[in-house]
């Protein structure tokens, strides 16, 4: 009875009021929230090391550890936030409550940056680091609590905003379904624009005007976005949570294991179905049987001990069965969908590993190069600001993708969306390979100039080679993100069970987290096993004497193998088959999702 009531509530929000709620008019409120979150986290994290070392007088290693812990935590909390949204709270309230946590954390950081009592006294006039007093324990506690609140806020916003935005378009309506595909491009464009402002304007304010203003601006933006997001409450299509998705997946596994000795069946039509039982978790339509992973079909085989008539349909069932003993076809296919997504999900880790080098070794390359805008200019581009070229390339690619590539691709693929999300991700993988391959040759060119100038032994001396030689690799990584990241968001949202889309979207952030950890592991291994006599190393402290190009090409090789793996996975991937209920026409249309 409880699931039936939940199902009716979800229908009240999701179907009966389609003409009055959801749609494009909700986008400004949703995008404002995501824009403010990115403005806050990127604006702070990009320059965080400067704040910790210069304002709180942390040692560099401690500051780097603090930054790593914050980034890792903020990439893992989306799993918890997504679970709460799908199982108990719902996406709207998860986003709103998370925004409040974020607001409190950012306000705390801003207060600590404005009032000197929250920071150690300035260093002596000589400015020697050893003469600086490190922040007291209670001052560090304020920092850590603030960062924890921000990580909790990110955990609620990141996985839910994209799923909540896509929820505003009715999948049973062909016109709105097309808008759902466009939504992911709009979402990423807004996110990229916000990040671009953060790494330029906000960082400039922090360095040249003050940290009070530098943190206060994104704090104020977060307050405005939270208020505007709440103001759109009555306009949103809000899908109520349908209980823990992990519990349902576990029930299918347990039921299948219990019936492991039951003979398999050849006719899937006699597997158990119960539309009333699944109503709360299949708003748009139910999943239909697929042949893969047939072991789990045993969970839907009716036996005498299940308490329902063997071979009965949903409407013929005398009572709701124990879900730990008997599952419906829809619930079995939910588990199959999650398992089938796994191999595609794993393929994205190496792409993130490759992109992570732009914030480490590419930054070191930039630091050794001529960063003037022109030979006569006195202004030098900060090494960290080279990521602007990645973001610009990403934004341009997204714009061209919508305006030019989709219409062109339609002629060849016949798909309304131009390219399927699997094709889009594959293109991104290929571009990432080109990025690291080219990066190796640019590094050879940089070291050749250093050798000609006799500066190999002087790693801190600026070389007579323009930093703009690095633009191609930065731009290619921006193009990679436009194809791969958006493709992944589309993939997770489209192929995940409807009742756990926030959880599936959180997997996108988990890929980013794991990709960063794999990068750390790869750097550690290469540094250890490439060490030679006389202190030689591929990743030497003096990159002029290292073999950084070998490292880039190693990543290129790994990515090439990964692309082959991905192509095999994509070729044999089975799309989630759905029967979509079209309420207004009182008929059921089966879609096979071959996109």
From TrEMBL:
PROSITE patterns: PTR2_1. The chain crosses the membrane at residues 92-115, 143-166, 186-205, 211-233, 344-363, 383-401, 421-442, 474-493, 505-530, 550-568. It is a multi-pass membrane protein. GO terms for biological process: oligopeptide transport. It is found in: Membrane. InterPro entries: MFS_trans_sf, POT_fam, PTR2_symporter_CS. GO terms for cellular component: membrane. GO terms for molecular function: transmembrane transporter activity. It holds the Pfam family PTR2. Keywords: Membrane, Transmembrane, Transmembrane helix. Belongs to the major facilitator superfamily. Proton-dependent oligopeptide transporter (POT/PTR) (TC 2.A.17) family. This is Protein NRT1/ PTR FAMILY 3.1.
């Amino acid at each position: 009875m409880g699931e039936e009531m939940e199902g009716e509530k979800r229908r009240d929000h999701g179907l009966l009021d389609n003409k009055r709620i959801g749609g494009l008019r909700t986008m400004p409120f949703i995008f404002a929230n995501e824009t403010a979150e990115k403005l806050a986290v990127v604006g702070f994290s990009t320059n965080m090391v400067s704040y910790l070392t210069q304002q709180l007088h942390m040692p560099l290693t401690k500051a780097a550890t603090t930054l790593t812990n914050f980034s890792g935590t903020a990439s893992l909390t989306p799993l918890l936030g997504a679970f709460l949204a799908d199982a108990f709270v719902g996406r709207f309230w998860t986003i709103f409550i998370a925004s409040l946590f974020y607001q409190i954390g950012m306000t705390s950081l801003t207060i600590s940056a404005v009032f000197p009592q929250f920071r150690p006294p300035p260093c002596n006039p000589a400015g020697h680091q050893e003469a600086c007093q490190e922040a007291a324990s209670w001052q560090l506690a304020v920092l850590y609590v603030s960062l924890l609140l921000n990580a909790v806020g990110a955990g609620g916003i990141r996985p839910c905003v994209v799923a909540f935005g896509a929820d505003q378009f009715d999948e049973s309506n062909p016109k709105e379904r097309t808008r759902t595909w466009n939504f992911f491009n709009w979402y990423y464009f807004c996110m990229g624009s916000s990040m671009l402002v953060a790494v330029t304007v906000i960082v400039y304010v922090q360095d040249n005007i003050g940290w009070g203003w530098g943190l206060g601006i994104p704090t104020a933006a977060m307050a405005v976005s939270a208020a505007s997001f709440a103001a759109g409450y009555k306009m949103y299509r809000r899908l109520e949570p349908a209980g823990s998705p992990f519990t349902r997946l576990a029930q299918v596994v347990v039921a299948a294991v219990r019936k492991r000795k039951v003979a398999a069946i050849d006719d899937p039509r006699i597997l158990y179905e119960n539309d009333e039982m699944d109503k709360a978790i299949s708003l748009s339509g139910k999943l239909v049987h697929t042949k893969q992973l047939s072991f789990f079909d045993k969970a839907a085989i009716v036996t005498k001990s299940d308490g329902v008539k063997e071979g009965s349909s949903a409407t013929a069932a005398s009572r709701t069965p124990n879900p730990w003993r008997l599952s419906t076809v829809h619930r079995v296919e939910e588990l199959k969908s999650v398992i089938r997504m796994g191999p595609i999900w794993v393929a994205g880790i190496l792409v993130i590993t490759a992109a992570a080098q732009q914030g480490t070794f590419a930054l070191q390359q930039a630091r050794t190069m001529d960063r003037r805008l022109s030979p006569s200019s006195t202004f030098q581009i900060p090494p960290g600001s080279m990521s602007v070229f990645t973001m610009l390339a990403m934004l341009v690619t997204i714009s061209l993708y919508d305006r030019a590539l989709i219409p062109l691709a339609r002629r060849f693929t016949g798909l309304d969306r131009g390219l399927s999300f699997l094709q889009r991700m594959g293109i991104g993988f290929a571009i990432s390979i080109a990025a690291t391959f080219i990066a190796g040759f640019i590094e050879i060119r940089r070291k050749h100039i250093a050798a000609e100038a006799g500066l190999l032994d002087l790693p801190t001396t600026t070389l007579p080679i323009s930093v703009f030689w690095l633009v191609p690799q930065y731009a290619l990584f921006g193009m990679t993100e436009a194809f791969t990241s958006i493709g992944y968001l589309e993939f997770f949202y489209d192929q995940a069970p409807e009742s756990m889309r926030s959880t599936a979207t959180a997997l996108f952030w988990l890929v980013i987290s794991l990709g960063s950890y794999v990068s750390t592991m790869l750097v550690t291994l290469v540094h250890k096993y490439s060490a030679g006599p006389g202190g030689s190393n591929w990743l030497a402290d003096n990159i002029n004497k290292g073999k950084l190009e070998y490292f880039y090409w190693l990543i290129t090789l790994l990515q090439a193998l990964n692309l082959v793996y991905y192509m095999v996975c994509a070729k044999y991937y089975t799309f989630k088959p759905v029967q979509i209920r079209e309420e207004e026409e009182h008929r059921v249309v089966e879609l096979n999702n071959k996109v």
